[in-house]
Design brief:
Number of domains: 1
Strand content: 35-45%
Low-confidence stretches: 2-25
Distance between the termini: 49 Å
Radius of gyration: 20 Å
Largest sheet: 7 strands, antiparallel
Structural class: alpha+beta
């Protein structure tokens, strides 16, 4: 009887913790709304909900708007989310439409690979702040003229780099 009670209590705890899990990459809607409605290009917003021993911090930077040849307008935000007790981080370029509705994202490995700005409807990636990991003279430009690219190749050095895919 005691073992049965113990097993039931353990199952209950596991099911409650499974439902309590929150994807650290999905910032609360109000964070995105704050960044998009303030419309301040280049401004980094930090939303820290960390608790003792558990990181939960989101950094969002609004890069601005990109207009396609067919007249669509996309708003672009970079996102870095620190979570867990180590902390681990995820990095994304997040795309919204002109009505501030989520369209999709490109997941990146490291925050230094994220684009720094938008120039002439292109995302601009430079490697000046990589601490020598990538060639600082390499500048990548990704055009959105024909719409959202399915993939983006960002060169690091010697024509080698990373390929990032769009996901909605």
């Amino acid at each position: 009887m005691t073992n049965r009670f113990l097993i039931m209590a353990l199952c209950l705890c596991l099911s409650v913790s499974a439902f309590a899990y929150r994807d650290p990459n999905k910032a609360p809607h109000k964070d995105w709304s704050t960044v998009l409605t303030r419309n301040k290009v280049g401004k980094k917003y930090v939303f820290d909900r960390s608790k003792k021993g558990q990181y939960n911090q989101t950094e969002l930077t609004y890069l601005g708007k990109i207009k396609t040849n067919d007249g669509r307008i996309f708003k672009v935000v970079t996102s870095t989310v620190f979570f867990g007790n180590s902390p681990a981080a995820t990095n994304k370029v997040v795309v919204f439409n002109s009505k501030n509705q989520y369209v999709g994202n490109y997941a990146f490995g490291a925050d230094f690979n994220l684009p720094k700005k938008i120039v002439n409807n292109e995302l601009v990636f430079d490697h000046k702040d990589t601490g020598g990991l990538c060639d600082p003279s390499v500048v990548n430009r990704i055009s959105f003229e024909d719409g959202l690219p399915k993939q983006m190749f960002v060169e690091c050095r010697n024509k080698q780099g990373d390929l990032y895919s769009f996901s909605d």
